[in-house]
């Protein structure tokens, strides 16, 4: 059951019970003592990082959080989040001291950065905690697997104000049916760890698995994994085995704010790209691309009204769009509209929306706009709220 929310323009419900089920399902894939880091970059893929982290603070299966930027990390600490936080991407010097003082972990793949960080840590009278990033085929950031990298990491290990807490890599192709690329990447990663071990450089924490690898590359879990998209009940790719029990945690709703009957031959929305072929009942929904709803769904996508699909007709505007409810005769002014989620037996998933709009499910989730309030539900009650305007 979803909680009752007072009628409003648009809102998302994020279901903490479904989130817990996803964590539990992944946990069952992992050997005991393997930590799980929740990847909550880009505002937890649009779901609201502070609320998600606050909820996961009480979940013993979650050992910490991964974010992309310094700002994201600091926002979490400010909200009282105490578990380990790792920044996956590059950090600019202006933020070093704040981050060191708050025990936020840095992903490191350059000696110059390590040296600057060491100097900042000395100033803070504290060690900076770092995780060395290895490039095993993504070619984005990270040390390549070679002897020169070993030499450089040795120098970094000699810096007095750094603590080498972890080593990690990221798979470029773990979500494909063909796992040979991921296998090659993993063996490179292990080679690097072995080469460093020979130099007496070891790391308490070692991690490489994203969601796809958690599900489909058992044996690669090392002692920590980084769960992203699957936390939210979404699929890393179409090529994954969809037998795994994932529960989408976000639903998106709106309400019909106008409804009218138009004669055949009526053009709808900007450009008149859609013209009614019959007398039609057209409903207006106050959501548009300004909320992150894809404009490419113009005359292509659909929403759910009274458990039935209502096709989008004409162009999606910035703040509104029109749908055809001719075949849903009981549809009325102020009826609830489901943009993502389930209504009766009908479902629109983030993946369906992605297929229809020619976009990526991750991207759609991340782009859900600030104008959309998120309500967090647990055991049938609303327990938290994220509202940009509040
Ligand atoms: C985003 C990201 C993840 C999580 O990926 P999912 O596919 O969402 O599980 C893990 N590690 C790194 C380095 C990332 O950038």
Plain-language structure description:
By secondary structure, the chain is an alpha/beta fold. It folds into 2 domains: 16-232, Alanine racemase (TIM Barrel, Alpha-Beta Barrel), CATH 3.20.20; 250-348, Lyase, Ornithine Decarboxylase, Chain A, domain 1 (Beta Barrel), CATH 2.40.37. 27% of the residues lie in helices and 28% in strands. The chain contains 11 helices and 22 strands. The chain has helices at residues 16-27, 41-45, 49-56, 70-78, 96-101, 111-124, 147-157, 180-198, 211-216, 350-357, 361-367; strands spanning 10-15, 35-39, 62-67, 84-87, 104-108, 128-135, 143-144, 162-169, 205-209, 224-227, 250-255, 258-262, 267-268, 274-275, 280-285, 302-305, 308-311, 321-324, 336-343, 346-348, 374-378, 381-386. The strands form 4 sheets. Strands 1, 11, 16, 17, 19, 20, 21 and 22 form an 8-stranded mixed beta sheet that branches. Strands 2-3-4-5-6-8-9-10 form an 8-stranded parallel beta barrel, surrounded by 4 helices. Helix 4 (70-78) links the parallel strand 3 and strand 4. It is elongated and about 80 Å long. 45% of the residues are buried. The site of pyridoxal-5'-phosphate has 11 residues, from helix 9 and strand 10.
Task: Give the helix/strand layout.
Layout: E1 10-15, H1 16-27, E2 35-39, H2 41-45, H3 49-56, E3 62-67, H4 70-78, E4 84-87, H5 96-101, E5 104-108, H6 111-124, E6 128-135, E7 143-144, H7 147-157, E8 162-169, H8 180-198, E9 205-209, H9 211-216, E10 224-227, E11 250-255, E12 258-262, E13 267-268, E14 274-275, E15 280-285, E16 302-305, E17 308-311, E18 321-324, E19 336-343, E20 346-348, H10 350-357, H11 361-367, E21 374-378, E22 381-386
Parallel strand pairs: 1-21, 2-3, 2-10, 3-4, 4-5, 5-6, 6-7, 6-8, 8-9, 9-10
Antiparallel strand pairs: 1-11, 11-19, 12-15, 13-14, 15-18, 16-17, 16-19, 19-20, 21-22
The structure holds pyridoxal-5'-phosphate.
């Amino acid at each position: 059951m979803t909680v009752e929310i007072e009628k409003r323009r648009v809102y998302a419900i994020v279901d903490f019970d479904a989130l817990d089920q996803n964590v539990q399902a992944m946990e069952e894939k992992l050997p005991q003592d393997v930590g799980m880091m929740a990847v909550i970059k880009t505002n937890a893929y649009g779901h609201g990082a502070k609320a998600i982290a606050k909820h996961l603070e009480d979940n013993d299966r979650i050992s910490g959080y991964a974010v992309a930027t310094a700002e994201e990390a600091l926002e979490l600490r400010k909200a009282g989040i105490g578990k380990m936080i790792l920044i996956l991407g590059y950090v600019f010097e202006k933020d070093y001291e704040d981050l060191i003082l708050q025990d936020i972990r840095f992903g490191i793949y350059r000696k110059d950065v390590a040296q600057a960080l060491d100097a900042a840590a000395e100033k803070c009278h504290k060690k900076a905690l770092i995780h060395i990033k290895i490039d095993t085929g993504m070619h984005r950031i990270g040390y390549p697997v070679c002897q020169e990298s070993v030499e450089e990491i040795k120098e970094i290990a000699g810096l007095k104000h750094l603590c080498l807490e972890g080593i990690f890599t990221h798979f470029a192709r773990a979500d494909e049916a063909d796992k040979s690329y991921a296998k090659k990447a993993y063996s490179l990663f292990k080679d690097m760890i072995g080469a460093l071990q020979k130099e007496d450089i070891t790391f308490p924490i070692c991690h490489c698995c994203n969601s796809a690898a958690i599900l489909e590359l058992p044996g690669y879990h090392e002692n920590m994994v980084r769960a992203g998209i699957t936390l939210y009940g979404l699929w890393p790719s179409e090529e994954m085995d969809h037998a795994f029990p994932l529960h989408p945690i976000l639903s998106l709703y709106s309400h019909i704010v106008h409804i009218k009957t138009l004669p055949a031959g009526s053009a709808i929305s900007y450009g008149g790209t859609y013209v009614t072929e019959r007398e039609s009942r057209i409903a207006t929904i106050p959501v548009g691309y300004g909320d992150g709803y894809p404009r490419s769904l113009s005359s292509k996508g659909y929403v759910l009204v009274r458990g039935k699909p209502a096709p989008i007709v004409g162009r999606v505007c910035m703040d509104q769009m029109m749908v055809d409810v001719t075949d849903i005769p009981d549809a009325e002014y102020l009826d609830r509209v489901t943009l993502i989620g389930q209504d009766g037996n009908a479902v629109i998933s983030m993946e369906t929306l992605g297929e229809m709009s020619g976009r990526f499910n991750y991207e759609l989730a991340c782009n859900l706009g600030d104008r959309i309030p998120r309500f967090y539900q647990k055991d049938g009650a609303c327990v938290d709220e994220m509202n940009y305007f509040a």
